[in-house]
Design a protein that fits this description.
- There is one protein chain.
- By secondary structure, the chain is mainly alpha-helical.
- The protein contains 25 helices and no strands.
- About 75% of the residues lie in helices and about 0% in strands.
- Helix 15 runs antiparallel to helix 16.
- The longest helix is centred in the middle third of the chain and has 41 residues.
- The termini are far apart.
């Protein structure tokens, strides 16, 4: 059995920004030791590689005798340099670093200095609602009480301990409160991303169990900024799922306001914040507020352009692509197929250059592009991108969109009159998706229609009538029709 190698170091190095790489080299170069020279050479060798191959790397750095040891040391050194680079920009990292200083001062017996730094750190953590860090600070406070012994009598000591216990109970309660809201929010996100996997009854059950929780009946039950933000995001997601986009939009904007009032929440989860803005822009599109949608998209761009705020690895690149997706979604909602195609031509070279682009980003871009080509009757171009999706193993992508692409693949082969392949493609689709059907199987009905049109126009006409009737009576919960305008295709169908 061939030996497998961990690519963790390779993945970490290739996820670093240019400024992080530059800082690491400066940080490592402070020492002129042979070890640091080895780190730099190994770093550069791995950075140069496009696909990880450990055997080739070992041959390029023969002076490194204990390769696995140096590899592990380099990994830790990179993480340490990133932490140092960002600790002044991220309050949570800054306070954790101060806790290390406090520990050093404590063991030196410099209790008064230790106390001053601890009081300052505690105030910062309280203001920023860094509850987990506050629990760590509490442990140090109790230890420091024993070191300083600045209480006049036992009652004074007991009072301080009682106050710390009360604080600890309050902090633990707020942490649990946040967890309660997260647990309510997560099931709705599953319905949001993978809605077609669930029947209407299953959706209703999840929504009822979630939205009748006492935590969601009154915002005052949310005990922190993060809990309040999650409260509004849960309601926003709920209204989105039941097709009340105006109310969804209102709650999503409230969540954004809360995040902006609590900068530490943005600092600690910038990806979540930018995703929230993207969701708000999507809701603005749903409400036909296109100027507002563009304003929200512009806000994402301005946050990315302000690189001082971007401290998480890879965010800048990731959300540059999210902006592309948001703009293409805007065109998609208005069925501006030509604009989608033109926009893609503008960004295509950027997508080609970046080998680290995420599969989810490509899927979302290609999902819109394929439909633009399809409805523009550019079937060969649509097929090219369909094959890119279907022939590559994509992981962690939206299964509903992937399935729609499989469905469009059938329609494209029909439009191109590839009848010899059509039967095989239809059967493959039905086998793959039998268990996870969209509401009332309208996609399966369409597959039957295409098979029948080749063999019997009379039977096909009956199926077509059934499909049209179904389309006219569809409710707003049909996830298939949200992702693909079957009605538009049926209207243009050649008889």
């Amino acid at each position: 059995m061939p030996k497998t190698y961990s690519s963790d170091l390779f993945d970490l190095i290739h996820a670093l920004s240019k400024s992080e790489k530059r800082f690491f080299k400066l940080y490592s170069a402070k020492s002129n030791s042979n070890d640091n020279k080895q780190y730099i050479k190994l770093f550069d060798t791995i950075d140069y590689q496009k696909k990880y191959n450990e055997e080739k790397i070992i041959k390029k750095v023969p002076e490194i005798k204990k390769f696995s040891v140096v590899k592990n040391q380099l990994y830790n050194l990179i993480l340490k340099s990133i932490s140092i680079l960002h600790q002044e920009k991220r309050l949570s990292l800054n306070i954790r670093n101060k806790l290390d200083y406090i520990d050093i001062l404590y063991h030196k017996g410099l209790y008064s200095q230790c106390e001053k730094l601890l009081i300052k750190s505690k105030k910062q953590a309280q203001k920023a609602e860094l509850f987990e860090i506050l629990l760590s600070i509490q442990k140090v406070e109790i230890k420091l009480l024993m070191g300083i012994r600045n209480f006049k009598n036992i009652e004074s000591y007991q009072l301080k301990i009682a106050n710390l216990q009360k604080e600890r109970a309050s902090i633990s309660n707020k942490i649990q409160n946040i967890q309660n809201y997260f647990e309510l929010y997560f099931p709705l996100t599953v319905l949001f991303h993978e809605g077609s996997r669930y029947s209407i009854q299953e959706k209703k059950k999840v929504i009822k169990e979630t939205m009748t929780s006492p935590f969601l009946l009154d915002e005052s039950k949310a005990l922190s900024g993060l809990a309040k933000a999650t409260f509004h995001m849960t309601w926003s997601m709920y209204y989105f799922l039941i097709k009340e986009s105006e109310k969804a939009y209102a709650h999503a904007k409230k969540r954004l306001n809360i995040l902006q009032e609590h900068p530490h929440l943005i600092e600690d989860s910038l990806i979540d914040y930018l995703n929230n803005i993207k969701f708000v822009s999507r809701l603005a599109i749903e409400e036909n507020e296109y100027v507002e949608a563009l304003t929200w998209i512009g806000l994402i761009q301005s946050e990315i352009d302000d690189f001082s705020k971007i401290v998480d690895i890879g965010i800048k690149s990731h959300f540059s692509y999210q902006i592309h997706i948001a703009k293409m979604d805007l065109f998609f909602h208005e069925k501006q197929w030509d604009d989608i195609i033109r926009y893609y031509e503008d960004i295509k070279s950027d997508l080609t250059i970046n080998s680290q682009i995420e599969n989810t980003v490509l899927l979302n871009i290609y999902f819109v592009l394929i439909q633009a080509y399809f409805f523009s009757n550019l079937q060969h171009k649509a097929l090219k991108y369909i094959n890119l999706i279907l022939n590559i193993k994509f992981s962690g992508i939206n299964s509903d969109k992937h399935r729609i692409i499989q469905f469009i693949n059938i329609l494209v082969h029909y439009e191109l009159k590839n009848y010899d392949l059509l039967d095989y493609v239809i059967k493959s689709y039905q086998r793959a998706n039998r268990k996870d059907t969209f509401n009332d199987n309208i996609d399966f009905l369409t597959c039957q229609l295409l098979s029948q049109k080749i063999n019997s126009q009379k039977i096909a006409d009956k199926t077509l009538t059934k499909i049209k009737s179904s389309l006219n009576t569809q409710d707003n919960n049909n996830h298939f029709l949200e992702l693909f305008d079957l009605n538009l295709w049926i209207k243009n169908l050649k008889y």
